[in-house]
Design a protein that fits this description.
The chain is globular and about 70 Å long. Helix content is 23%, strand content 30%. Helix 2 (29-43) packs parallel to helix 4. By secondary structure, it is α/β, with parallel strands linked by helices.
Length: 376
């Protein structure tokens, strides 16, 4: 959750407190529906350029009085709220991890007319033919645990996916319809061998931190499927070219901009007629991109890479300066360090150092230049 949303929520809670104390009005179902709709917008996480993942589990905390009034009607209230949430999600291309669930809890610290909401995205799990019995689980020599639910590992095994054809269905948009197969074999001596096979899924199968196509499993093996990339508030992804591709477990800071096109050529006389330069953007697994960074067309950021905040301005500005251009750097912090030590860039394209650096605290300090980069 971004800092701005925290501020907005704090202000909203403060306003609710003032009005609740002044008027002592009871919470109305329409207020809950409105708050949950706002929660979807605030918590939407980017899956791809077309879809955003939103919470599907909500807990509404009410004062003792409001809880006593609304809890007996919870089912009827939810029957009205859930369709509204689905309509709102459909209009904005939001995706739920599973069925929408709304629970109500009593919080004695809340005054009448005031309530708060918590939410999370929870993938649901279902087995073809229903869940395994307790007896079947106890008799199985090995089990696979998914979201706290144990599934017996019995020959010949089972398939995992999001689609109805999978034996074990996990309602997660990051999981393919038929994602993986768990193969269970038992020899004459009763020894059990278990392996997992990727069935050509989009996001792959990770076992104990390594991406695999087919590997044997042991007691305690950890299987990861789906995606857990996190995109903060204020990010912009614009694709008019081959596409923007983001790997697993990436952390993308607030205000990051990514685009795979120049949108127009530099020469104004050829705009609208000349082909627009484009190039796919690939962001690898476990990548961290700091706040405010800009990722341009054709860039590939390798697995485990770190792109610090302000790194783009320093990198491209440094490249221009190294090529002999007159470049000024508008530095928001660490000004004295820049003036004393210059700019040092380490890159797979080659390391370089610029010293002295034309660094300024304010744009007005510098003389007119062709290139001005703000960094830091």
């Amino acid at each position: 959750m971004g800092w701005l949303h925290n501020v907005e929520r704090g202000l909203e809670n403060a306003v609710n407190t003032v009005f609740a104390r002044a008027f002592r009005g009871e919470v109305e179902p329409i207020e809950i529906a409105t708050r949950l709709t706002k929660e979807l917008d605030a918590q939407a996480k980017l899956l791809n350029r077309d879809k955003r993942l939103v919470p599907n589990n909500f807990t509404v905390y009410l004062s003792t009085h409001d809880y006593d009034e609304l809890a007996p009607m919870a089912r009827a209230i939810n029957d009205d709220i859930v369709p509204e949430l689905r309509r709102h999600a459909g209009e904005r291309h939001y995706v739920f991890n599973g069925p929408i669930r709304i629970d109500y809890e009593c919080d004695p610290s809340l005054s009448v007319g005031r309530f708060r909401v918590s939410s999370e995205s929870v993938a649901t799990v279902a087995e073809t033919g229903g869940a395994a019995s307790t007896t079947a689980i106890k008799r199985a020599p090995l089990v696979l645990e998914v979201n706290g639910v144990r599934h017996p590992l019995l020959p010949p095994g089972f398939t995992i996916g999001r689609g109805s054809e999978a034996d074990l269905r996990i309602n997660d948009p990051g999981i393919s319809r038929l994602h993986a197969r768990v193969v269970v074999k038992q020899d004459a001596a009763g020894e059990v061998d278990v392996s997992v096979e990727d069935l050509g899924s989009t996001n792959g199968v990770i076992v104990n931190g390594q991406r695999v196509t087919n590997v044997a499993l042991a007691d305690g093996s950890r299987i990861e499927i789906g995606t857990d990339t996190r995109v903060n508030n204020g990010c912009v992804f614009i694709s008019e070219g081959p596409g923007i591709f983001v790997g697993r477990s990436a952390l993308i800071g607030p205000g990051v901009t990514v685009f795979d096109s120049d949108f127009h050529v530099v020469d104004a006389r050829r705009r609208g007629t000349a082909p627009v330069p484009t190039g796919a953007v690939h962001i690898g697994d476990h990548v961290f991109i700091g706040a405010g960074a800009i990722v341009t067309k054709g860039v590939t950021i390798g697995d485990n890479a770190v792109v610090g905040a302000g790194a783009v301005g320093a990198y491209y500005g440094g490249r221009l300066a190294a090529a002999g251009h007159r470049v000024s750097f508008l530095v928001r912090r660490d000004y004295e360090v820049w003036r004393q030590h210059g700019l040092r860039v380490r890159s797979v394209q080659g390391d370089f150092t610029i010293r002295p650096v034309r660094a300024f605290r304010h744009a007005a300090e510098g003389t007119p230049v062709r290139w001005l980069h703000r960094v830091g």
